[in-house]
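Morning F.,

Quick status update on the modeling queue. The single chain you submitted on Monday has been processed. Sequence for confirmation:
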Amino acid sequence: LVKFQVLPVMSTMKAALVKTLGLVHDSDILEIVEDYPRPSRGKGQVLVRVLTCATSAGDMHVMSGRVSFAITPPSFPYIPGSSVCGVVEEADPEAEFKLGDRVIAHMGMKPWGALAEYAVFEARNCVLAPESISDEVASACGDSAATALKAVELAGVKEGHRVLVLGGSGGVGSCCVQLAKIAGASFVAATSTQVKLLEEELKADRAINYKEVDWWSIAEFQEQPFDCIIDCVGGGGHFGKAGANRVLKSGGSGGKFIAVVGDEPEPIIHNPLQLAGFASRLLWRSLWTWLWPWSPRYICFVTDADSSTIKTILDHMAKDKLLLKVDSSGPYPFTKDGVTAALKLQESHRAHGKVVIRVNRKG
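Structure tokens below.
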């Protein structure tokens, strides 16, 4: 008599996998597989069927290997992505979510694990998605909008302030323009080549095409310096130019330079020495500008998009005060060509709004 052992069938899913570190535009580091093991959740976690996934700068920092000493995936191949809109498949009985709820979910401080048909998130990083917003817009709430909210809060923007946003048409910058207005700023200027977008859709008081005009040389800004500059571009010595040309108030007068992106938008951190150098430059500038009131104060930060932050964003959206921009080239299909194109656009720093990938359809 021959006995057969019945083995359990492992559930699988379609997933994007990064095979090795490298740049998307010049290497074949990405593949899409149909039979990757479906993840299982633990206590306090939610299993989500992903509808859309938004890309981010963090994805590119990790994928490229530029910051491999500071942050790297636990193993290879790994699933990229961190911010999604999806549908709850499993949750704890006492959780505020139930089967079938559409949620906005974010991986927190680890930019991997989300670009697949299913992903597991901590319940504290999930929020119910309002019916009034699309899947594409919802997936952007846990990343760019949360970063922008933190930047505006750190800037202490209030009624009557003058604010300049560098890179005002991107995912973070477009939110900064609007959130500064919500906070009471009386004048918000922004830089981008997308002048029409800034003026007509985001309602910036002045749009500056940085390819035609140097914002630090504008006489109006020198005569009426800004209370705050929020830098969503990085590089270019923007902090030094703002101070040297006196377009930003001194720290003693409340002037703040908020570095969403620092002097090195693509930092290289491969060893302890590079990590120490990168961190010390930021910390030293933050310290001496805090102690020296004649210079604008320099502030850099890291965002962790928890549920309370996302709920604040959704509240502004519900009141029609905040419009989250999604790049018009998307959403990209969940194919190798589609995901590669989305990541190349993210890598180029030329997206106008969030770059979004459609993973699953509703239903």
